[in-house]
Amino acid sequence: MLSAAMLAFDARTDRLAPLRSAAMTAAEPLLWAAEQPARLHRFVTFLNLRAEEMGALEQLQRTHLRLLARVQRIEALEAENRRLRALLSSTEVLEARALVAEVLAASQDPYQQRLTLNRGSEHGVYRGQAVIDANGVLGQIMRVHPRSASALLVTDPDHGIPVEVNRTGLQTIAVGRGDGQSLSLPYLPGNADIRVDDLLVSSSLGGRFPSGYPVARVKEVRYEPGDSFMEAIALPEARVNQSRQVLLLWNEQAAADAAADAAPATAGADGAASPDDGDPDGGTAADAATGTDDTAAESAEATE
């Protein structure tokens, strides 16, 4: 009854307003204390959600990094796949037996342009075997080990390769200039039909290289009036010292000859040491160019 009377009195007059204000002021600490559990619950919920979001963010960042690494690897694999396809397509027309090899190292000696490959005698590799990349002839195998081999590049001064001018059929020899960038065609007849930008392809003369593979392109022709010979400078078509994969081409006759040459050397090694004990492969760069020496003689006779 008292409460109802006070409500009715308060509704009709403002005399209880100070009392009401004082009561509200006195109740504020109680109201604040009553709200704290709800606020604490919201704060804890916020912290939990933030922790979950931070964990999810870190997981997304790790996944993003893994995906980026995978994308980089995919790009590398795609590039390698393109190189391998280009290598394999370079032998499709000639249907030659070929073996893909990885380049392990390149010689840092400016006077010896050589590559170390991850294929050796266990894979059938033999001395004198032609080495090409997707663009042209790189060189030939010089030394063979069970699981590796050393290749002499076409730009090495000890390397010679029989070539043919694709436009005219002129046969000659291209030798490395030792600068790692070019080849020389020395002792060309003064009336030889050869021009700048002529393509030089490999010739089967000498029986070491398969015919028809791009070797170099003529950059300069040097001839002084009155001289008996002229010289041509050519740039190799192959990407010298830039290839990661190469192809080893088989010449069955050359492989048989190499095996026949290796058999007496093996037999001799069982009996007594030979003068070539310093070379584990029993040969030098000059030995590997024997086939090209014979070809040079044949080319000179043809020119005469």
Number of distinct beta strands: 12
How big a fraction of the residues is strand? 15-25%
Radius of gyration: 41 Å
N- to C-terminal distance: 142 Å
- Structural class given helices, strands, pairing? alpha+beta
Specify the number of helices: 5
User: What is the H/E order?
Assistant: HHEEEEEEEEEEEEHHH
The average pLDDT score comes to: 78
Principal-axis shape equals rod-shaped
Helix content: 40-55%
Main β-sheet, spatial strand arrangement: 1-2-5-4-3-12
Characterize the largest beta sheet: strand count, sense, and whether it forms a barrel: 6 strands, antiparallel, barrel
Unreliable stretches (pLDDT < 50, length at least 5) are 269-304
Briefly, what is this?
The chain has 304 residues and is α+β, with helices and mostly antiparallel strands.
Task: Please explain how this structure is put together.
40% of the residues lie in helices and 24% in strands. The chain has 304 residues and is an alpha+beta fold. The chain has a 6-stranded antiparallel beta barrel. The protein has a 6-stranded antiparallel β-barrel with strand order 6-7-8-11-10-9. Strand 6 and strand 7 form a beta hairpin.
